[in-house]
Structure formats: structure tokens, C-alpha cells
Amino acid sequence: MNDPWFVTKIRRHDLTIIYSYCLTLSIIVLIIVNFGTRARSSSVLPEAPSLSKVLYCFWTGNNPMSDERRNCLNTLQNSGLEVKIITTENLSLFVLPTAPLHQGFPFLSETHKADYLRTYFMHFYGGGYTDIKNTTRSWLSAWAELNNDPSKYANGYTELGPDKVAVVPNARMNRIIHKNWFHLIGNCNYIMKPQTPFTFDWYTQMMKVMDKKLPLLRRYPARHPQEAGSQDYNYPISWTELLGDFFHPLCYKYRRQILHTCPSFTRSKYK
């Protein structure tokens, strides 16, 4: 026997309500799940760049290396790292589209170009840096020690004494870093993790100097490889202004994040 018409109407009405309720509930569940997924993903920090196993050095002039310097270059393989020498011929291959060289770079002396580039490479690439000097010991254990410690930013050799510390413009900081020279690492070779607070501060301070000096750099570009300003020519950057003035203060600032187990070069003739 068929249900009365009004019973059928009520059942259809109930089904409509149930369908609407289920649909609404499904939408709410999807929103909650999606929000939770986004919340979890947004709380995950981007993966830090890996520590490069490359040892960078720079030859920024067009002049040939001396025999002594080339012999030192050949010893860098003793570090156990992959040695890459950056020159005027291959530099463009390493300049990032998102971080072009400062427009004042062409006006720098060869020495200051090398100062600029070590900062650039340690911030954006990381890995090892060294002056082209005699290297006899492996860096592999120093590299591994830094790579395995997430709390550390750099590994270098302990500065050799207060007389090797840069004289910086800030008198108070100058006293601090000379008194605490044993907390600092030397500026001739080290290993750096890329894009750390240390390298960010380092790169940012260098770029501020470049911005400030640009008008005078254009007017008084470097005339020779070790230009550092003189009474007769107003090249605007002093010997330590693009590197030493802030490297050691930053070493002191981040002293708890720096290791001191990287071998230093062997002191021998290199020029």
C-alpha cells in the first residue's frame, strides 16, 4: 500500500535536510584539514643551504702570477677540498642574477675586488676561502666539524695576536677586539656556512660602504692593484675599509658560533 502523499513529501523534505547537512559538514571538514596542512607547512623553516666542499680563491687582475704564487696555488689541493680559482675570465659564471655585483665594483683596486668577492662568495655560496698561500694540511676534518654542528657559522684559525687585528674606526670596539684577539679568527683562510647572520651582517656592511663611496669611486677609480688612497689622489677606500673594519668586530659578535680548528697556511714566500 502506497504512503499518503503528505508522508512522501515529508520524507523528501527530510532527505533534502540530511543532504544539506552532510554537504555542509564535508565542506567544514575540508576547510579544517586544509587549514591544518597550511599551518603545519608554514611553521617549517626552509632548508638551510648545504655547506659547500669548495675552496675558493681569487685572482682579480690581468697580470700573471709569479712562480712563487703559482706554486702556492698548486698546494691548495692539499686541503682535500675542490679548489676553484675565480678570475676575470670566469667571474661572470658565479654572479647570481638576484645579486649582481655592485655598480662600483669595476672601480675598485684588485685588492679591494678580492675583499669584495670573498664576502660575496662566503655569503651566497659558502665553503672555504683562502689567500693564495702555501697550504700543507687537510681541511677535511675542519669542514666536517663545521658541517656537523648546526650551532656554528664558521671555522677558522685563531688570530695570531693583537698586532694582527685590524684597527677599526670605533674606539670602543677597537679596544674590545684587541683585548679579546684570541676569540677572533684570522682573515687569510676559513670555512663559512652560507647565508648565516654572520655573512648577512658582513655582506650588508660591505654594501653600505660601496653605496656611500660610489660617487667618489666613479671620480677616482683605482689606478693600480693595491690602491688605498693618498694625498695626491682621492681613491676613497682605505686599506681595511672594505673588509678588516668589520670582519673582526663580527667575529667577536658571533664568537660563540665560530670554531677554531681550520688549519692556517704555512708561512713561506708567496709573492
Task: Write up this protein.
This protein is an alpha/beta fold and 271 residues long. It has one domain. 41% of the residues lie in helices and 11% in strands. The chain has helices at residues 5-42, 67-75, 110-124, 140-147, 171-179, 197-219, 244-253; strands at 54-59, 82-87, 127-130, 154-158, 185-192, 258-259. Strands 2-1-3-5-4-6 form a six-stranded mixed beta sheet, sandwiched between helices. Helix 6 (197-219) packs antiparallel against helix 7. The radius of gyration is 29 Å and the shape is globular. The N and C termini lie far apart (111 Å). The model is unreliable at 5-10 and 28-46 (pLDDT under 50).
How do the strands and helices of this protein lay out in sequence?
Layout: H1 5-42, E1 54-59, H2 67-75, E2 82-87, H3 110-124, E3 127-130, H4 140-147, E4 154-158, H5 171-179, E5 185-192, H6 197-219, H7 244-253, E6 258-259
Parallel strand pairs: 1-2, 1-3, 4-6
Antiparallel strand pairs: 3-5, 4-5
Q: Radius of gyration in whole Å, from Cα? A: 29 Å
The helix content is 40-55%
Largest sheet, in brief, is:
6 strands, mixed
Shape: globular
What is the distance, rounded to the nearest whole angstrom, between the alpha carbons of the first and last residues? 111 Å
Strand residue percentage? 5-15%
Total of DSSP H or I helical runs spanning 4+ residues:
7
Question: In a nutshell, what does this entry contain?
Answer:
With 271 residues, the protein is α/β, with parallel strands linked by helices. 41% of the residues lie in helices and 11% in strands.
